[in-house]
Design brief:
The chain has 557 residues and is an alpha/beta fold. The protein is 39% helix and 20% strand. The strands form four sheets. It has a five-stranded parallel beta sheet, with helices on both faces. It has a five-stranded mixed beta sheet with strand order 8-9-10-12-11. Helix 11 (251-260) crosses helix 13.
Length: 557
């Protein structure tokens, strides 16, 4: 079909690249020993295995950390390690990453080796403290790296190669093949842990070649939910991981799909990001992520269902809290309508949830947003940004007034005295204005893969588009654009009439499109002509199938 081919060409998928993308090969996986320090980690673990040392896997409380932890726990059990524990930090006690307090707790248990997953690259003083207590550390991570690596036995982080060879990579991929360099650097934490497992398979018995594929359900879950780019090895791992998940042996994931209303035979990347992921994350946002790890590790069906139902209930609580915070934050945001960057704060806004609220405010106001919880004299917050404004750099410009802060361009965190919130608001807005950024909101508009007429939007096309899945960062669901459509029907939906279904006509073809929480300009009257950006899908209802669209953007003619 020409439209499908146009989409492939628009994404640079021609020739061999086209075939490799449409038919991802797990067997094309890269050599794990090309990653920094993998050889050192393997040697240390072979020694630990020979002496049956006590090992603690130090995870993170997000899904990437939880799946990476479970991957190593499962694999180490297969390899015959007899004394392996997991330590998942509490967001409200230890906070993010490796901490000195946690290292001391782990050392007190008699552990001789700590393996971090999804954290540890910047944990210099914590790893030094571990050494003082006679505990070795192996770091597996994918976050930013230090100019000089901490004194761990091994620091396995693909981003080290980007730091050492910046001219060799573009968009985390090698520009040209180099035998001594790992070809793809945007692995999630679970992906790095999985590479360590593949390396250990070359030295230890118990997990035969090919059997590690049963871990791909976890790799897929962590990779999608950590929003790394779904290209190269990530695409293959998620593509095959979804097939594993559809027939997973894990009682916990079976139960989680059940309570989430996800049919295993139809599980896709969206299921992970919008159904399974939020329920797992709710535990760490409200109390402790240990509940989610226990669910992943459950072996008894009844026990697994009980744990999955707990996560489901916690997710409902999270949503209720999130909605309450969001409504309060909107009232505050309106007071700062002239600010190009929003900074809102209040007592009692759970800092495990405010990151989601920041994302929703960004979506509503099209502005970078910082949301802070005031806790006594201290405030802790999360930021979300887009376009050319770096949330992390703006925090750095306030180093003299904050307690700590950092992160990435599009997502960051900050802790500062409550008394300095007003000054902080002035600073980040001054940073934005000084950059003289232009047309930023245009960057949030959907980009069409191709322009077409409605008669082309058929089940056949939708079936072809499905071959591009799994969708995600770096491989978004295709967007179609259709021009000069006549609006022949409008129907408001939802308790507050906040959703809309529009019926469009293009010559003899009609197509319904839906928009949830639609902006006011989407509520166009019949008789008008518009240009629309949308994603086609098949709606199944009461045994009937129909093609419709998810309306993303609309402009009147």
């Amino acid at each position: 079909m020409p439209v499908f081919e146009d989409i492939l060409v628009a994404r640079g998928l021609t020739g061999r690249a086209r075939d490799a993308f449409l038919n991802p090969s797990y067997d094309a996986k890269h050599d794990p020993f090309l990653l920094p320090d993998v050889d050192k980690a393997v040697e240390r673990l072979v020694t630990a295995h020979a002496h049956q040392e006590r090992i603690t896997i130090y995870g993170d409380y997000d899904i990437d950390g939880l799946t990476a932890t479970t991957i190593l726990l499962d694999a180490f059990e297969s390899f015959g390690f007899a004394h392996v524990d997991a330590f998942i930090p509490n967001r409200f006690v230890e906070g993010y990453g490796l901490t000195v307090d946690a290292v001391e707790k782990i050392a007190a248990t008699g552990a001789q080796l700590i393996i971090t997953v999804d954290c540890g690259s910047l944990s210099e003083k914590e790893i030094v403290r571990a050494g003082e207590l006679g505990v070795d550390v192996i770091v597996t991570d994918h976050h930013n790296v230090a100019p000089v690596q901490p004194p761990a036995v091994a620091v396995i982080n693909p981003k080290r190669l980007l730091q050492d060879h910046p001219d060799k990579y573009e968009d985390f991929l090698l520009k040209e093949p180099v035998d001594s360099l790992y070809p793809f650097l945007d692995l999630a934490g679970c992906g790095v842990a999985f590479k360590l497992v593949q390396a250990l398979q070359t030295r230890l018995k118990g997990l035969d070649s090919g059997q590690e594929k049963w871990l791909l359900d976890l790799v897929a879950l962590g990779t999608v939910c950590d929003v790394v780019t779904l290209v190269d090895e990530n695409r293959a791992n998620v593509y095959w991981g979804l097939k594993v998940l559809s027939q997973t042996r894990r009682q916990g994931l079976k139960a989680l799909m059940l309570v989430s209303g996800v049919e295993p035979t139809k599980v896709n990347a969206r299921s992970l990001g919008f159904a399974l992921g939020p329920r797992m994350n709710a535990a760490g946002r409200l109390e402790t992520a240990q509940y989610a790890l226990d669910m992943l590790r459950a072996t008894n069906p009844e026990d697994a269902l009980e744990k999955a139902e707990l996560l489901d209930e916690m997710n409902r609580t999270r949503r209720a809290e999130q909605d309450a915070i969001y409504k309060e934050a909107i009232l505050q945001a309106e007071q700062f309508a002239d600010d190009p960057v929003l900074v809102v704060s209040a007592v009692g806004w759970n800092h495990g949830i405010i990151g989601i609220v920041a994302a929703k405010l960004l979506e509503k106001y099209k502005k970078p947003t910082y949301v802070l919880e005031e806790m006594g004299e201290e405030a802790k917050g999360s930021a979300r940004s887009y376009g050319d404004f770096s949330a992390a750099d703006a925090i750095r410009a306030s180093d003299d007034i904050i307690t700590k802060g950092g992160g990435h361009k599009l997502a960051a965190g900050v802790t500062l005295p409550v008394a300095k919130i007003g000054v902080f608001r002035e600073r980040v807005n001054a940073v934005y204005r000084a950059q003289n950024l232009q047309n930023q909101q245009d960057l949030l508009l959907p980009k069409a893969d191709t322009t077409t007429t409605l008669d082309i939007v058929t089940e056949e096309l939708i079936e072809l588009l499905a071959s591009l899945e799994p969708y995600g960062n770096g491989n978004p669901q295709p967007v179609l654009r259709s021009e000069n459509l006549l609006v022949i029907g409008q129907r408001r939906m939802g308790a507050d009439g906040q959703h809309v279904k529009l019926t469009f006509q293009d010559d003899a073809t009609k197509l319904d499109m839906l928009a949830f929480n639609a902006p006011e300009h989407f509520f166009v009257e019949p008789g008008e002509y518009v240009t629309v950006w949308y994603q086609p899908d098949v709606n199944e209802w009461n045994g009937r199938r129909s093609v419709e669209g998810r309306l993303l953007h609309l402009e009147t003619a």
